[in-house]
Design goal:
By secondary structure, the protein is an alpha+beta fold. Strands 1, 2, 3, 4 and 5 form a five-stranded mixed sheet that branches. It is built from three helices and five strands; from the N terminus they run αββααβββ.
């Protein structure tokens, strides 16, 4: 094998390994206080109807892991909190990982009328919940 070809293959291999590491590494970065997606039962302070809420019963756990965990915990034991999410240093992690912020943005785009400031109203098993990202457990 010629030296040029060998160096080219090694260079491509190094680039591929760096890209793989960049995709896996951010999930392990943790800094600062964690963020949680919380689901609190809507107490009726806002007029909520079925057409102005996201249908949380049909959300996929693969696409919305933080939302489904918060809704399931709210229904099961009343805590209504997802697993923690750390933003990571220097904002690098946000470009490579899925976050509760991404999920809220996606829910706002699905049903714009469900957005209420920084929160989203979701209907899950007949109960209305207000989803928000918080730093307190």
């Amino acid at each position: 094998m010629r030296t040029v070809t060998r160096n080219f293959i090694l260079g491509v291999g190094v680039v591929v390994l760096l890209l793989l590491a960049l995709g896996a590494l951010p999930s392990y970065l943790k800094s600062g206080d964690p963020y949680y997606l919380t689901a609190a039962p809507e107490n009726g302070s806002v007029s909520v109807e079925n057409g102005t809420a996201v249908n949380g019963s049909n959300l996929s756990a693969a696409r919305y892991p933080y939302t489904t965990a918060a809704l399931d915990n709210a229904a099961a034991n009343g805590t209504g909190r997802s697993d923690p999410y750390w933003r990571g240093p220097v904002g690098l992690k946000g470009a490579f990982t899925h976050s509760p912020f991404d999920e809220l943005d996606a829910l706002r785009q699905q049903v714009p009328a469900a957005a209420d400031g920084e929160t989203v109203i979701v209907r899950h098993d007949g109960t209305f919940y207000r989803l928000a990202v918080t730093q307190r457990p």
